[in-house]
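During the second year of the project, the team shifted from modelling isolated chains to modelling whole assemblies. The rationale, set out in the original proposal, was that interfaces cannot be judged from single-chain predictions alone. As a representative example for this report, we include one of the complexes processed in the last quarter. Its constituent sequences, exactly as entered into the pipeline, are reproduced here:
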Amino acid sequence: AQSVTQLGSHVSVSEGALVLLRCNYSSSVPPYLFWYVQYPNQGLQLLLKYTSAATLVKGINGFEAEFKKSETSFHLTKPSAHMSDAAEYFCASNTGNQFYFGTGTSLTVIP
Amino acid sequence: NAGVMQNPRHLVRRRGQEARLRCSPMKGHSHVYWYRQLPEEGLKFMVYLQKENIIDESGMPKERFSAEFPKEGPSILRIQQVVRGDSAAYFCASSRTGKQDQPQHFGDGTRLSIL
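Output from the structure prediction step:
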């Protein structure tokens, strides 16, 4: 069965500090992987996607993620957190008709 | 606005009533997906439709829930005889081709409250 696991339902960082949000996948075949961000009362917005072209993927708003097959991970990072980054972040995988979403990580940015 | 449009944004129903949630996909997209999100949880897949066809409904409850995507007009998620447990945010997403490497584009959701 395919799934993604997000470690840490809540992450707090200081403004300007490194952001690291963890995502591990389980799949019998390499999946397509995505990170989405959700702001309050809104839908999900695509940050970036991995489709096997390159292991380091750059997305919008300064985020990037690295696909590591040996660790079955696809962690999301940003060198310097901004107050506007405070939101819910979801990792998702797709090897078929449907997306499988993690349970989300709520990011708090402390001024 | 060329994004995925969902309406209404908020819907209140009493137990036993019917709820109809609408979704218009992005222009040029013919693949529609419905998800349900409960507080503090991720999105759970419900159903995947292409114009006039249900492709995958493995996430749909067996009773009271149905979905359609007619040739003309929006996709409809219908919940009959609603119960308190149906209270959730329901999100629609669309994609152009339905292929695995294609991202899904999401609407802002319909928040359903059951009194």
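The longest strand of chain A covers residues 87-94. The mean pLDDT of chain A is 90.
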